[in-house]
Specification:
With 246 residues, this protein is mostly helical. Helices cover 54% and strands 4% of the residues. Helix 1 runs antiparallel to helix 2 and helix 2 crosses helix 3. InterPro entries: RasGAP_CS, RasGAP_dom, Rho_GTPase_activation_prot. This is Ras GTPase-activating-like protein iqgap1.
């Protein structure tokens, strides 16, 4: 899957049409010759076989002598694809953790097409056990709320269209913006435990900000002592930066 994505989405187009991706410079009105495009197609075909470990057989039996080369090249591709999968975790990449949502004033917004929403919905339902193997994982509640996979028309609010209607694909490419919101961060008796946890975390953070500027041997001594104007200003500045208001 990774090999197919990397090769066909990024490598192959640049090889067969380098002029379309500004990889080579072509003068105004100029273009690659038929022979050049045929040669690039041959290179792409060779790399395609190497990437997929597909040997030349049958009608291409005359190319059998290079099958050994293709096999060895496939091992290089496999190492490359494996290395491409070795990436930072999402938390590290985007510098977020379980407390990030508590200090974020503006909710994140994503832009996604209707077709991508349906594909993501389908993948989540098909791989629930892999996504949340633990029975008590809160994500199960979210997965249950998903319901059945919706249709393009139902998401857009249009009447059902025939399967072969060309407008169906066009509607699937419609892009929408979604504001991400924590489903569990809702006031009320049903979320008393969650509200208490949020309050505790916010309180701890405020205390940490105070400790940074007010000295003392114990926490009680620090909280009971009178802060100087400078300490108050420094603490307020930090609190404001962290999106809290006193």
């Amino acid at each position: 899957i990774v090999g197919n994505l990397l090769y066909y989405r990024y490598m192959n187009p640049a090889i067969v049409a380098p002029d379309a991706f500004d990889i080579i410079e072509i003068s105004a009105g100029g273009q690659l010759t038929t022979e050049q495009r045929r040669n690039l197609g041959s290179v792409a075909k060779m790399l395609q076989h190497a990437a997929s470990n597909k040997m030349f057989l049958g009608d291409n039996a005359h190319l059998n002598p290079i099958n050994e080369y293709l096999s060895s090249s496939n091992q290089k591709f496999r190492r490359f694809f494996l290395a491409a999968c070795d990436v930072h975790s999402l938390e590290e990449k985007f510098n977020v953790d379980q407390y990030s949502d508590l200090v974020t004033v503006t909710k994140p917004v994503i832009y996604i097409s209707i077709g991508e929403i349906i594909n993501t919905h389908t993948l989540l339902l098909d791989h629930q056990d892999a996504i949340a193997p633990e029975h008590n994982d809160p994500i199960h509640e979210l997965l249950e709320d998903l319901g059945e996979v919706p249709t393009v028309e139902s998401l857009i609010g249009e009447n059902p269209l025939p399967p072969d209607d060309p407008n169906k694909d066009l509607m699937g490419k419609t892009e929408v913006s979604l504001t991400l919101t924590n489903k569990f961060d809702v006031p009320g008796e049903a979320n008393t435990e969650m509200d208490a946890k949020t309050l505790l975390l916010n309180t701890k953070r405020l205390i940490v900000d105070v400790i940074r500027f007010q000295p003392g041997e114990t926490l009680t001594e620090i909280l009971d002592s009178t802060a100087s104007p400078e300490q108050v200003k420094n603490t307020c500045d930090v609190v404001e930066i962290n999106y809290f208001s006193l």
